[in-house]
Design a protein that fits this description.
- One of its GO terms (biological process) is rRNA processing.
- Its cofactor is Zn(2+).
- This protein has a four-stranded mixed β-sheet with strand order 1-2-4-3, with helices on both faces.
- Helices cover about 50% and strands about 20% of the residues.
- The chain is an alpha/beta fold and about 140 residues long.
- The relative contact order is 0.16.
Length: about 140
Amino acid sequence: MINFNYETDFNLDNEQAFSDWLSAVIVSEKKNEGEINYIFCDDEYLHKINVEYLDHDTLTDIISFDYSVGNELNGDIFVSVERVEDNAKDFNVSFEEELKRVLAHGILHYCGYKDKTDTDAEIMRSKEDEKIAMFHVEQ
């Protein structure tokens, strides 16, 4: 089950389309969907988590806590809406495209993809692009 939670004034339009897409992303990686909670927040909220739990005194767009067991993906994914907005401007893409990239990124980490080395980051970016292309809104 994909859940969306809000700790800021942001609201995701068309939650069902995003939930369906994220479920399809999980299946496309041959994983099973457990309980995944997305928590949308602001920079201050995510910065506190970064300092308290990861001992990183930096801003970031996403922090994921992976509670997966075997092939069943479970976890909490915190997303700073402010960082996504800034990154969209920096990368010259729409807010929605950058949001999709970040949402997929969290799932891909749960699937075992890393992004610390240049090679791993390149693979991660390719996987993100592949998953973004899977997004469809039913008419």
